[in-house]
Amino acid sequence: MTVLVRTVAVGRPREVPGPRDGDLTSTAIWKEPVEGPVEVGPENLAGDEQADRVSHGGPDKSVYVYGEEDLAWWRGELGALDDQVFGQNLTTVGYDLRDAVVGERWRVGTAEFLVVQPRTPCFKLGMRAGDRSMPRRFTAAVRPGVYLRVTTTGTLAAGDELHVLDRPAHGVTMAEAFAIVHHDRDRAARLLEAPDLPAGWHAWARERLAHHR
Q1: CB–CB of 31/84 below 8 Å?
Q2: 177 — phi, psi (to 5°)?
Q3: Rounded to whole angstroms, how far apart are CA atoms 143 and 97?
Q4: 4-184 architecture in CATH?
Q5: Is residue 43 within 8 Å of residue 35, measured between CB atoms?
Q6: Spatial distance between the Cα atoms of 31 and 37, rounded to a whole number of angstroms
Q7: DSSP for residue 55
Q8: In the chain, what is the straight-line distance between the N-terminal and C-terminal CA atoms, in Å?
Q9: For every one of its 213 residues, what pLDDT tens digit does the chain have, with 9 covering 90 and above?
């Protein structure tokens, strides 16, 4: 089946009311779809930024992808849903992203990417959704989407095909990695089989194993 990028969206940080009364927090989770070609830089799309570069930016979180299949599931749970509520840069159609493997190589337009990790939700997802329980519900759903590392800069646009160029044999998927960290921690050793996971994931797995010897 052909996999397509349905939407490309970008956003810049804005100040919004924080989780406590009177607080303000900076976030770029509000992203708007854009038309036409978008440049893919080394660590983000043109016009896109992250408010918190420690938690949300950097090469291993350059582009966030969420699937129409996941959005459809959430509509079944919640009813009408803003398509951009998860703050994704790319919305794909035709690929269950839960099955994407750590270390997969993708080409979209003239840019190439590496699938590196699933998303771990924070309180800003609850703010964007207008529901403080949303991070907890997101964790329970095990539909984390995909963070990409840019391996070849270029351009992409809504309507482009997503080509999976390579899938590593270890088979550690986005859903499996996410579930291990949040629900099935006794399987931490499995994460060490996926060399393209960021170092922090491997450090967590080794610490978990060390504490349970």
Answers
A1: yes
A2: -60, -45
A3: 8
A4: Beta Barrel (2.40)
A5: no
A6: 16
A7: T
A8: 45
A9: 899 999 999 999 888 876 766 677 888 889 999 999 999 999 999 999 886 666 667 899 999 999 999 999 999 999 999 999 999 999 999 999 999 999 999 999 999 999 999 999 988 898 888 888 999 999 999 999 999 999 999 999 999 999 999 999 999 999 999 999 999 999 999 999 999 999 999 999 999 999 876
